[in-house]
Structure formats: structure tokens, C-alpha cells
Amino acid sequence: MLKLENVTKYYGNHLAVDDLSLTVREGEIFxxxxxxxxxKTTTFRMIxxxxxxxxxxxxxxxxxxxxxxxxxxxxxxxxxxxxxxLTVKEQMIMYGTLKGMKEKDIxxxxxxxxxxxxxxxxKNRKIKELSKGNQQKIQFISAIINDPxxxxxxxxxxxxxxxxxxxFVKVMKEFKEKNRxxxxxxxxxxxxxxxCDNLVVxxxxxxxxxxxxxxxxxxxxxxxxxxxxDVDEEKLKSVKGVLEVVDNANxxxxxxxxxxxxxxxxEIVKKGQNIIKFMVEDPSLxxxxxxxxxxxxxx
Length: 299
Ligand code: ATP
Known about the structure:
By secondary structure, this protein is of the alpha/beta class. It has helices at residues 40-47, 88-98, 103-116, 132-144, 162-177, 192-195, 213-220, 233-238, 262-270, 285-298; strands spanning 2-11, 14-24, 28-34, 55-60, 63-64, 73-76, 150-153, 181-186, 198-203, 206-212, 223-230, 242-248, 251-256, 273-281. The protein folds into 2 domains: 2-217, P-loop containing nucleotide triphosphate hydrolases (Rossmann fold), CATH 3.40.50.300; 223-282, 2-Layer Sandwich (Alpha-Beta Plaits), CATH 3.30.70. Strand 1 (2-11) and strand 2 (14-24) form a beta hairpin.
């Protein structure tokens, strides 16, 4: 189990991470979300011991993380940390050896993943000759080559096309199946919703939203009602609890403050004509994220 307890980091006078606590269990994919400068990279650097926290505790299975544990950790950094003059193979042998692996095992794993990410032909090419997306794949392979117990991925999807995002997600899910601890960061919500178990949203280093996606959506209370048909939109706008009525292509979306107002909206819709859809949906994680982050900035 990875545990952060009241972790705080100052760079000089600048507070970058503010009293952050979180737990990631085996078999869990945890999302650290936040806009630029929220404190995600700083948090990861503290977890792997590249930076020392100003306050608080970080442990893996109740032990502080130090160099003895590095062969159990895989880390994909946000900025490219590849040695671009080396070939893919040379880079991976160096990286795997540092993690205590035998060359035979490194090469076996490398062939497997290169094949999986459809880049086998780049094995003996210099990293600088690879496209950005393919360099990202090499970074990802470097992070997983030693089959780590704790996998830390800082913005893993940067520069990837949707097909390769899917492939990365598949590998992350396989690590989850193998009971590994996975923590990743992102400032985009689209993919997070599909595979993340728990998450924290950071704003200026502080956690503003925390928990499982299911619970976060439940607690958020607001709902979106999707309607197709001829309905008096002005009447909908006047219903108590209706926050907004959006005309969206062929459907109307009514945003309500709380699910208790669904019936009141339904009463108006009933009086309309040609109604073929009335569907209540949870808002997307992106909508919740924007509202939470936005609210914080407005304070
Ligand atoms: P991004 O999504 O842009 O990568 P992030 O969430 O990873 O952002 P961090 O890189 O952790 O954010 O930065 C958190 C805050 O700390 C920012 O305000 C940043 O300017 C500041 N910061 C980061 N590194 C340093 C440093 N070495 N010295 C001083 N301030 C720093």
C-alpha cells in the first residue's frame, strides 16, 4: 500500500503541495488530477525520493521509500528523460540493469512490448530519430520493464493517438489485475472516467475533490436531463432547481441542482409534444472537475 500522510512541499516560500493525504492499495489505479502547476509532478518526485517533502510521511507497505526499493518502482516522467543518442535497445539494457534485471530478461520483455506497441522496427534506432509518440512508448516501456510493484505515470497519455492511449490503458489494467499499485496524473478527464478507481483533484497543491468516481458523482448531486421533443423551454427555465437549459443539436439538456427536481421537470415535459427521450444522467467527470476547479479559482 502506498500512503501519503499530510504531505506538504514548499519551494522556498512557494507552497506547491498542501497537506496532501492519500492511500493507493494493491490492485488499484489512482488518478492524481489537476490543471498545470497543481502539484502533480512535485508529488510524484517526493514519492520516488527525488525531492524531500517539507512535512508529512510517504510510505510503501509501511516503510519509507528509499533506494532499496527502487527496483520495485517504475516511473514515467513528464519531461522526456531518455538518452536520445542511445538506441532503444541500449537505453533499455541500461535502464533494466539499473533495476537489477538480467540482460536476457530485459531483451525478452523489450521485444514483447515493442511488438505490442507496433514499434519493433525501432529497436536498433537512436531514440532521437523516433517521433514524440513513439518516444513516449519507449518511456512507458522503461517504466514497466521491471514489472514494478508500484507504477507511477506522470501524464502518460501526452502525445499519444487514441489507439495507443487504449493500448496504454490495457497495460495499466493488466498491472491492476496483477495486484500492482498504479498512480498516474492527468489534466484531462476523458480517459480517467473509464479505468480509474479513486482520484484526487489538486488545485494549487490542495485536494479539492477526493474519492471514487461513483461516490464523487453521487455527492455532486447535480444531474443532466436529456430531452428530445417539443417542450416549452421558457417554462423549463422557470422551474425551481433548474440551473441551465442548453439547446444541443437535436436535444435539450436541462441541468438541475439536485435529483429532487427531476419530477418538476418531468411535469413540464409531459405537457410537450412528440417526446421521444427523457433521460437523467450523471454529469461527466470533466463537468465536475471544471465546476470544482472553477469554484476554487473564483474564491
Ligand atoms: P503540470 O501539469 O503543468 O506539469 P504539475 O501539477 O505537475 O503541473 P508541479 O510541476 O508539481 O505541477 O508544480 C507545482 C507548483 O510548484 C507550480 O506552481 C510550480 O511553478 C512550482 N514548482 C515546481 N517545481 C519548482 C521548482 N523546482 N522550484 C520552484 N517552484 C517549483
